[in-house]
Specification:
Layout lengths: L1 E7 L2 H10 L3 E6 L9 E8 L6 E7 L7 E2 L6 E3 L7 E7 L10 E2 L13
Antiparallel strand pairs: 1-7, 1-8, 2-3, 4-7, 5-6
Length: 116
């Protein structure tokens, strides 16, 4: 498997694409009234790993640009966020719907165990 670093404009974009790929699934909950069809409730769950993929939802990555008072250790200027919502996706082949979100960081913020 290969690891792809992905950056989406926001979490909602990633969730929408993940739903289309059956990586983020809403499970039916049976209704309490006998004979009725199961009712879907807002119970979305990630399929973080399978024999075809693994997902690491990183979210916001912060730049290393905070300014601290060297004497007191007090934060003067907080770090700024990098643009987008970040995900590491390990797979045999990246789905076509995700290819435009691939990025190639020089020093990845976070890696899967065993990745170089």
């Amino acid at each position: 498997m290969i690891t792809k670093n992905l950056r989406f404009p926001d979490l909602e974009t990633w969730e929408t694409l993940a739903k289309e790929l059956d990586l983020y699934i809403n499970y039916p909950i049976p209704s309490e009234n006998e004979g009725e069809e199961p009712v879907l409730v807002d119970d979305w769950q990630w399929i973080f790993q399978s024999n075809t993929h693994a997902i690491d939802n990183i979210g916001t990555i912060w730049n290393d640009d905070a300014v601290w008072n060297e004497e007191t250790g007090e934060l003067i200027t907080p770090p700024t966020p990098m643009a987008g919502y970040h995900v590491n996706y390990k797979c045999n082949e990246l789905p076509a719907s995700l290819t435009s979100y691939e990025v190639t960081p020089q020093n990845p913020y976070r890696k899967f165990a065993g990745d170089p």
